């Protein structure tokens, strides 16, 4: 399957999670095995060759990160919402397009010097990706890049990640 067809399966859901927000839903892509393979392969093509670990952002980033980890022999570290981890190394609270959120890094999941790519489905305001990078770096990891399926450039996410390699398969 071609990447264009796979990305054409993305669904827009208006007024979710709040009125005025257009949610970009990756579920139809994830549900189609050929589309999922096309997207994961395209993400892998953009990942820095020194990468050892995928930091996968809750929750759709988990699915992409696990596929990348299995397919290309990376470790996978889940970046979770509060209260989901039994042992937390670091916590970061950040602003979203429609509120605030917190991410946590599991204890002893990233070791100093490890090369880590941050993976998620969408880059919007950049708060989540920036928080993920901060968590990895607090643990001593080296962020090799941020890889997403979809970027919404009008929300300024890339500006919050200045100096970092940011790869998006699609911009809308």
Automatic annotation (TrEMBL):
Pfam families: Pribosyltran
Domain Phosphoribosyltransferase stretches: 47-141
Predominant localisation class: cytoplasm
GO-annotated cellular components: cytoplasm
InterPro entries: Ade_phspho_trans, PRTase-like, PRTase_dom, UPRTase/APRTase
EC number(s) from the headed UniProt entry: 2.4.2.7
GO BP, one annotated term: adenine salvage
Pathway where it operates: Purine metabolism; AMP biosynthesis via salvage pathway; AMP from adenine: step 1/1
Top-rank taxon, per record: Bacteria
Cellular localization per UniProt: Cytoplasm
Record field: catalytic activity: AMP + diphosphate = 5-phospho-alpha-D-ribose 1-diphosphate + adenine
Keywords: Cytoplasm, Glycosyltransferase, Purine salvage, Transferase
GO terms for MF: adenine binding; adenine phosphoribosyltransferase activity; AMP binding
Entry keyword Transferase: yes
Role: Catalyzes a salvage reaction resulting in the formation of AMP, that is energically less costly than de novo synthesis.
Oligomer status and interactors: Homodimer.
Name this polypeptide is given: Adenine phosphoribosyltransferase
């Amino acid at each position: 399957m071609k990447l264009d067809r796979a990305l054409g399966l993305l669904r827009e859901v208006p007024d979710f999670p709040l009125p005025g927000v257009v949610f970009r839903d990756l579920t139809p892509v994830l549900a189609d095995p050929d589309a999922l393979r096309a997207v994961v392969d395209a993400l892998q093509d953009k990942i820095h060759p020194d990468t050892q670990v995928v930091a996968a952002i809750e929750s759709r980033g988990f699915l992409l990160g696990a596929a990348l980890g299995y397919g290309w022999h990376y470790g996978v570290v889940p970046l979770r919402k509060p209260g989901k981890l039994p042992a937390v190394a670091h916590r970061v609270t950040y602003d979203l397009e429609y509120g605030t959120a917190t991410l946590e890094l599991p204890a002893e999941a990233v070791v100093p010097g490890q090369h880590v790519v941050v993976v998620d489905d969408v880059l919007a305001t950049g708060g989540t990706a920036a928080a993920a990078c901060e968590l990895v770096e607090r643990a001593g990891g080296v962020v090799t890049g941020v890889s997403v399926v979809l970027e919404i450039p009008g929300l300024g996410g890339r500006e919050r990640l200045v100096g970092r390699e940011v790869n998006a398969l699609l911009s809308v």
